[in-house]
Write a structure and sequence with these properties.
The protein is an alpha/beta fold and 353 residues long. The chain is 33% helix and 18% strand. Bound molecules: iron/sulfur cluster (SF4).
Length: 353
């Protein structure tokens, strides 16, 4: 006798961007959410500086370069009345101009002053620290091998402090070929947002060639960059796919993708927004790692988590490797407003997850 027909409930097959997802066997789908991630103290301070300047002086307030390297942040500030320019000669004489978190060279400061601009310096104090190191070593006539990326605003600003003493080293391979005047008087400094591992490899190769190479007095790669890399290394070891929220011109975000791939992730991608997550990335994937660069508001991470939840990745586990509570006071031109106001930034605050 044949069995009666049974009508079974049809399981919900998750979709991303309208296409069906493969279910990765019987492995549960989950998200490993890196912590720390997102906003650092320097980015928080810089963004608040523009907002406070708009409140105090009224729109428009000009900002030289992107205040931080995140398209969402820039777009939001533009909507509030900020005008982003490439150089200070685009700013009307007498207007307020904010220098970005990445810092500026003395030549830019001088050009702003010559134009009668009212400058507000939102350079991250940890970038300023590297500037001071460059000035000090140049004063002692050391040749400075600045490990960083040619063309990055931070590198331009630091190199501009001592242009006759700085040579940029872009990669470990360049460490093998860089030419110095006096191998006995060489020091290395670095951009704040590099891969720690790659930078140490560059230094190792430099030291083979220049045994008297001096180290910076303290880490130039900042606490936020290091903490986010440590967290994503731990996540990547257990994740088949890593999604990094951050913009293409964000050095520390791009480094997070590289670090994830070097530490176990089968694939890693950077997205600005949740709708850039592609369904094919998730095919056969049980564990997705998620993190964000130091210039990324938390709201963008939450959007990605919502997208992943729609695709069945509802189980979110925090992977915390450090606590962060550093805050910087606002630029002195705005200081009567005291420190940045992370708590007000309900959706964009720094990671304390
Ligand atoms: S990433 Fe580091 S150096 Fe850059 S703004 Fe943040 S704390 Fe400052």
């Amino acid at each position: 006798m044949s069995s009666p027909a049974v009508s079974l409930p049809v399981p919900r097959i998750p979709r991303v961007h309208g296409r069906l997802q493969d279910i990765p066997g019987d492995r549960p789908k989950r998200v490993l959410l890196a912590s720390p991630r997102g906003y650092c103290a320097g980015v928080d301070r810089a963004v608040v500086a523009v907002e406070k300047a708009l409140e105090r002086f009224g729109a428009p307030v000009y900002v030289r370069k992107q205040i931080v390297h995140n398209i969402h942040v820039v777009t939001e500030l533009e909507a509030k009345g900020a005008i982003f320019v490439d150089e200070v000669d685009e700013v009307p004489p007498g207007a307020h101009v904010v220098f970005s978190a990445h810092g500026v060279s003395p030549a830019v400061v001088d050009a702003a002053a010559a134009r009668g601009l009212q400058a507000i310096d939102a350079t991250c104090p940890l970038v300023t620290k590297v500037h001071r190191e460059a000035v000090r070593f140049a004063r002692d006539d050391h040749e400075i091998l600045l490990i960083g990326h040619t063309g990055h605003e931070e590198v331009e600003g630091t190199a501009g402090e001592a242009p006759d003493h700085v040579t940029i080293v872009n990669s470990p391979a360049e460490a093998d070929t860089v030419v110095v005047r006096d191998p006995e008087k060489v020091v290395w400094l670095s951009q704040t947002t590099l891969s720690v591992d790659e930078t140490m490899e560059t230094v190792r190769r430099l030291r083979v060639r220049f045994p008297k190479l001096l180290d910076p007095p303290s880490d130039d790669i900042c606490y936020a960059t290091q903490n986010r890399q440590v967290a994503i290394k731990k996540v990547a070891a257990d994740a088949e796919l890593v999604i990094v929220v951050g913009s293409a011109n964000s050095s520390n975000s791009v480094r997070l993708v590289e670090v994830a791939l070097e530490h176990g992730a089968r694939a890693a991608y950077r997205v600005d927004y949740a709708d850039e997550v592609r369904q094919e990335w998730l095919e056969g994937v049980a564990t997705v790692g998620v993190t964000s660069g130091a210039s990324v508001p938390e709201v963008l991470v939450q959007d990605v988590l919502a997208e992943l939840a729609d695709a069945g990745y509802r189980d979110v586990e925090q992977v915390r490797t450090a606590e962060e509570d550093l805050m910087f006071s606002l630029p002195k031109e705005l200081r009567q407003d005291a420190v940045g106001r992370r708590d007000e930034r309900a959706l964009g605050g720094r990671s304390r997850a």
